[in-house]
Every structure is written in C-alpha cells, then in structure tokens.
Design brief:
The complex is a heterodimer of chains A (351) and B (356). Chain A is of the alpha+beta class and 351 residues long. Chain A contains 10 helices and 14 strands. A 7-stranded mixed beta sheet of chain A has the order 9-11-8-12-10-13-14, with helices on both faces. In chain A, strands 1-2-7-5-6 form a 5-stranded mixed beta sheet, with helices on one face. The longest helix of chain A has 18 residues. Chain A is globular and about 55 Å long. Chain A starts with 6 loop residues before the first helix and ends in a 12-residue tail after the last strand. By secondary structure, chain B is of the alpha/beta class. Chain B has 2 domains: 286 residues, Rossmann fold, CATH 3.40.50.11740; 44 residues, no CATH class. Chain B contains 17 helices and 11 strands. In chain B, the strands form 3 sheets. A 5-stranded parallel beta sheet of chain B has the order 2-1-7-8-9. In chain B, strands 4-3-5-6 form a 4-stranded parallel beta sheet, sandwiched between helices. The model of chain B has no long low-confidence stretch (mean pLDDT 93). The chains are: A alpha+beta (351), B alpha/beta (356). At the A-B interface, α1, α2 and β14 of A face α1, α2, α3, α6 and α17 of B.
Chain lengths: 351, 356
C-alpha cells in the first residue's frame, strides 16, 4: 500500500472541549503542527507568519530584514559540549543563517527561578558571550525576570534575532523541483543524543557531544557564490525526517534518501540503536539541509567540505517526480522503506 | 554491513521459495523484529511468497485496556506517582491515556528502568510510587531486582502494577486457537537470552513448527528466515539457534531464578484476547506486599471494545494493519485509536512509519 506523506496531518482534526496540552505538542512533529495551525495561525494569520519559514522577511526601506525568535527550555541546562546559553545563540543565529541572512543582533530574555545558582548563570552567560562572538553578533537588548520557586524550571531563555538578507538572496522551499539534490552538512543526531546521554535516569557513557554551532559561519561561504541553492533548513526537533517532510509536503514531489550516504559516527549510530531511536528523527543544532540544483551540487559540497562546520557534508538524497509524494529511504541493507514526519516526542523503547 | 552476504541470503531464500513453489507464513513473535524488519528494509527485499506475520510480542500492545484504566485511576489519586516506560504513556484506555492524566495534573514520570522507580520512591518518602511493570522476559528480571532492592533498603512506598507476560504461553495459545496459518516462528533474540533456546521445545513437540532464534541485525534476521524455510523444505523441524553468539540452550539461569523467586505464573488479561491461562506473572509470597492492586484496592477491569479498532486481530496475526478501516485515517501515531499505533514496537506504528 502506498500513502502520501502524513495524510492524517492534513485532515481536519476535531478538538475536544477538554483537550489539554501534552508534551508531544512541543515535540516538533505532527502534534505541534496541529497546535500551530489550529490554535495559533487561525488567530494571528498574516502573510509573514503563514509562511512558517525559519524567519520572517520584512521590507524596511530598501533593505530586507529577517526577524526570528526562539525559546529554550532544554534540560539539563548543561550537557556534553554545550549548555542552554550556547544553544540560545546558535538556535536563533541558525534560523537567520538558513534564510541566507547575515545575522546582525540578538535580544536575550532570561526567566530565572528563585533559588537558582548564580555561578550557573555566570557560566551560561560566558557561554552566550563566547558563542555570540564566534557568530559575530552582539546581544543588543535584553530582559530578566525572576519567578517564585517551583513555578519555573531553573532557567529558560528566549532569544530573538535580526539579520540582513543580501540582495539577490531568495531561498524558498517552493523553488525546489525534481532533479534537485539534498546535501546534509555533517554528522547526524549528535545534539539529541548528547542531551539524552546527560538526562537523569538515562545517563549513559558516550563521547557524543552536542553539535551546536552558529551556521552563519558555513552559510556565508555558500551565499553569494552564485550557486543555485534553492532552500536551506536546520533540522532541530524532529530531525532530518522533519525537514524532509516539510519539503515533500510543500512541493508535492518525492524524495529518495540513501541511508548509507547519511553521515553518522559509529558512536551516534550505536547510541541511537541502544535507545531504539531513529537517527533521522533526532535533533541537530549545528547542521543544515541544503537543497541545490543538480548542476551545482558538487560545487556546494566542495565548499561545505572546506569549512570546519561542513567537513563531513554529503549528498544524501534527491528530489524525484514520483506520486504520491513520499520520502523513501534506500536502507543500508539494500531494502526500501518510508520516512514519515515523526509524531513528536521520541521515547526510548522499553525492551 | 556486508551487502554481498545480504544479497546472497536473499538469493538463497528466493531459490528455496521458487523450488518449493509454496507460500511460507512466518510469524515474527516480537515487536522488535517487526520494527527491525521494516526499518532495515529487509521486508521489502523478500520474495512475495514469504508472508511475514507480526505476532503478540509488543508488550505495550498486549497490555489490556483495563490495566491502562487502573493505571490512570491510580495516577489521579492524591499522593501517588506513576513511574512508567515511555511507550505506555500514550496508550488509550477506556477513558483516555496516562498522557491525558498528566495534563490533568497526575504525576506520571517516565523511567528507563525499574530501579529508577525505586530511586524515586527513596527520594519521595511521603508519596507512593507505582511502577507499571510491563513487558516479557526481557523486562521482568529488572522488575524482580527492583523489588528485591526496595526490600533490601527497607523502602516501604514502592509498588508495582504487574502486567508482565510470558512469550511461550502466548505462542501456544495462538497455535491452539488455530485461527492463523503459521508455518514457523522467528523467535526474539533478547527474550531468548533469558529463557534459553530449550524453552521453545514444547512448541516444536506439540505443533511441529520451526522455532528459529535470531538477532535483530538484517543479516541475522535473513539467516533466521532462511533457516525456517530450509527446515520446512526438508521437513526437519526443530528449535534452531542462529543467534548462538548470545543465546544458550538453558538461557540466563540467574534471571530465571530471580523471576521464579519473585513471581508466580498467573492467568492474565491480554488486550482483545481475554484472560489466558498461566500467561502472565503476579507477585508471590512475601513479595505480595509490593502489589499495587492489593495496596490500593484496585481491580484490573475488562476491556471495552473500541469501535472500529482491530488491534486485537492485528496482535494475533489475523489481520494486517492496512486491512483495518481506521489505519492511517482515523488512527495515526498523532491520534492513535488502538495500542498497535502507539507503541514504537507496534505493528500498526511500524507499518505507518515505514510503509509496506
């Protein structure tokens, strides 16, 4: 039986009057889509928001400004290779970078729970400063709030960012067509696995560290090189599978992925296997999916490989004119299977 | 991964099928096999005359609605923290799931092992901790260890709601019912590490069906399928262990003793299959005081039929997911109607996620 991707997501969902928010509403999958479409866009609809791109593009005078915001609630706050501060800078910078924009400035809002350790604040602020410096952006405005004990989860951070879109840059998911090639900029699944390795109750020993990094250091080499790059997106929650689902849903064409070509370290592959998770659905924070015309694919790959953030990049998939629109994975073993948008919260298996 | 070897296995299997001209119905007993066969693409490479049937080996799927209802009811009582494996949180009972209870304010914590639940009990002496003890022989020894740990440490606020089940009786009951045509069984490597290869002998003796123990790597699964078909073609039926690197004839006797020390076999309710004799485990003797059912005076009620849901037939291999009218339409991983769509090892979830 062949189905188009996520037929259910497109069906009208009937909400019960007493329905509550569940964790999966925040997991980046189908459930979050339902929340955004049925409860937020229905009230706030406008052309900028409706596009649901990583940043809104505003025309201000002769300039095109990208504007984005992101909330960070990661737990634990500090994890192998990074912390919530590094993530708060990278997350927002990356949402600008994948639009092709040059990040200009960030805002920073801290909501801190009463009793929180100041030494941890200092460590996280140092991390924010270092990451912002690396990305070449300043935090230019901010806000702090302290809330009563037990009403918050230690520390949550919101960052917003603006960037300038260089003339001529217009990445758009709808430009993708059959024959285009999909590049993944490095090793998959490392952020999500690093977080899980540090979670209370799940702690397992691994060398895996978060891949969190400001992607503008990579995208600056790609933008303005005169290459026919159609679209970029950073696969965070819901992973590569989520971004591929975004593409297939937007353009109604199929994507064929070659599992053996997806860069992954043995440590990450084994950790995902141990947890019963599919690496394709695990979060990344310093990786980019790049869709490029076939003619320019090798050139884009070569540019990526010269950059420390893209040294492990690989061509992993192509867009094909096949209906119904599906994501098909050619497996390592040589078989075929579907890839679907993840439901939401991926949980380790029980046996 | 050695793709040349995989290709050779597929060719061997295809040749065996062509020579015999028969259709072979092979049941993979365990949900981990169902998922591995689909995720690795092995299923898509097999010749058409191999029919893979998913069996009753997804622990979440076979957990009765009444069990979920009991867990939900407990979760909404004051002073109780439910500790559970993640997969259970979204399984619909008769009136919502634990996820719904959590949104209503219930304390439902996801743990990765039974011992984590004991640690939570130790850290929260003013609360009662109820661990949802589900699963087959892979998860039972850890539950037994956790109970013994609680006893050794004098932790008085730790309880389990036992939903543990046994693999062998499940296979026997399916075969005795005779409603599903099964030629042979792919037996789960991880369960077999505990119970041992010899545990399958009664099945071979009574029903003359090949039982082949395999691991979960593509090559191991193909070796298992090839072994089953070879046995059938040669009409030489026995328990074969192609996962000898991990599984022994007698299994892990320490784990077996642990189970026997803490649990007794019991008649338990399986989702949609009703009460099956000696197919599950309940606490015995001095360990009965850890039983949440007795402590909180809660009964595991009967299943109420979910209109249109055919999970019961799916877990018995009577029906393929795509034959259920709800599959992929009203029932999806985002809005699951039945347990087979919830569990990461559920047949319907695997079919939906990986296609067939």
């Amino acid at each position: 039986m062949q189905r188009g991707i996520n037929t259910a997501a497109k069906e009208k969902v009937i909400f019960m009057a007493d329905e509550k928010i569940v964790m999966a509403h925040g997991g980046g999958g189908v459930k979050m889509h339902e929340l955004i479409h049925n409860h937020i866009l229905s009230k706030l609809s406008n052309p900028f928001l409706n596009s649901l791109s990583d940043s809104a593009v505003l025309n201000i005078g002769s300039k095109r400004i990208c504007f984005t915001t992101d909330g960070f609630v990661v737990w634990p706050l500090e994890f192998p290779g990074g912390d919530i501060g590094k993530l708060a800078v990278c997350g927002t910078v990356n949402d600008l970078a994948v639009m092709g924009a040059v990040p200009l400035a960030l805002s920073l809002s801290l909501i801190i729970e009463e009793g929180f350790d100041l030494a941890v604040i200092d460590r996280i602020m140092t991390s924010i400063a270092e990451t912002a410096k690396l990305a070449g952006v300043n935090v230019v405005t901010g806000d702090t709030k302290v809330i009563e004990r037990a009403r918050g989860d230690g520390l949550t951070i919101t960052t917003s960012g603006i960037g300038i879109l260089p003339d001529g840059v217009d990445l758009n998911i709808n430009k993708i067509c059959a024959g285009d090639v999909i590049i993944f900029s490095g090793n998959i699944a490392e952020h999500g696995l690093a977080i899980m390795s540090a979670r209370e109750g799940l702690a397992f020993k691994t060398t895996i560290k978060t891949d969190a990094a400001p992607l503008n250091l990579l995208t600056k080499d790609l933008i303005g090189a005169g290459l026919n790059i159609k679209f970029m997106r950073d696969p965070t929650r819901s992973g590569l599978a989520g971004v591929l689902a975004d593409i297939v849903e937007a353009i109604n064409l199929s994507v064929e992925v070659v599992e053996a070509d997806i860069p992954i370290t043995p440590a990450a592959r084994h950790a995902a296997e141990l947890l019963g998770l599919d690496p394709l659905t695990i979060a990344n924070e310093g990786k980019c999916v790049i869709v490029v015309s076939q003619a320019d694919a090798e050139k884009v790959l070569a540019i990526c490989k010269k950059n420390p953030l893209g040294k492990d990049a690989a061509i992993i998939a192509k867009v094909v004119d096949k209906k119904p629109a599906i994501i098909e994975l050619k497996t390592r073993a040589g078989g075929r299977r579907l890839i679907q948008r993840p439901y939401g919260e991926e949980l380790p298996r029980i046996c | 991964m050695n793709n040349t070897k995989i290709k050779a296995s597929i060719e061997n299997i295809t040749r065996l099928c062509q020579t015999s001209g028969k259709v072979f119905s092979i049941m993979e007993v365990c949900g981990t096999h169902t998922v591995s066969l689909m995720r690795s693409g092995v299923k898509s490479m097999l010749p058409k005359n191999i029919r893979l049937i998913s069996g009753p080996g997804c622990p979440v799927c076979v957990t009765s609605q009444g069990y979920i209802d009991a867990a939900c009811e407990l979760s909404l009582r004051d002073g109780i923290i439910i500790c559970t494996y993640g997969d259970m949180v979204r399984v619909p009972g008769g009136d919502g799931s634990l996820e719904d209870c959590r949104a209503k304010g219930a304390q439902v914590k996801i743990v990765y092992s039974a011992r984590d639940a004991v640690a939570i009990a130790s850290a929260n002496p003013d609360k009662s901790i109820v661990f949802l003890a589900v699963g087959f022989e892979t998860t039972t020894p850890p539950t037994a260890l956790a109970i013994k740990e609680a006893r050794a440490k004098g932790i008085e606020n730790f309880y389990i709601l036992s939903g543990h089940k046994l693999v062998i009786p499940a296979i026997q009951i399916l075969l005795r019912a005779g409603e599903v045509n099964i030629d042979g069984f792919m037996c789960p490597g991880h369960v077999s590490i505990v119970i041992g290869a010899d545990a399958y002998k009664p099945i071979v003796d009574e029903f003359n069906k090949p039982c082949v123990i395999t691991g979960f790597e593509p090559q191991q699964m193909l070796d298992g399928i090839e072994a089953i078909i070879t046995q059938l073609v040669k009409n030489n039926i026995y328990v074969e262990n192609v996962y000898g690197v991990a599984v022994t004839s007698s299994g892990n006797t320490i784990a077996q003793k642990l189970i026997a020390e803490v649990f007794d076999p019991a008649d338990v309710v399986w989702r949609a299959m009703g009460t099956l004799p000696a197919s599950g485990l309940e606490l015995k003797g001095e360990y009965k005081k850890y039983d949440a059912r007795a402590k909180f005076n809660i009964e595991i009620g009967q299943d109420r039929h979910i209109p249109g849901c055919r999970c019961g037939e799916v877990i018995q291999g009577k029906l393929e997911p795509s034959q259920c009218a709800l599959f992929g339409k009203k029932c999806t991983p985002a809005n699951p109607v039945g347990p087979c769509m919830v569990s990461s090892e559920g047949t319907c979830a695997a079919w939906y996620k990986y296609g067939s």
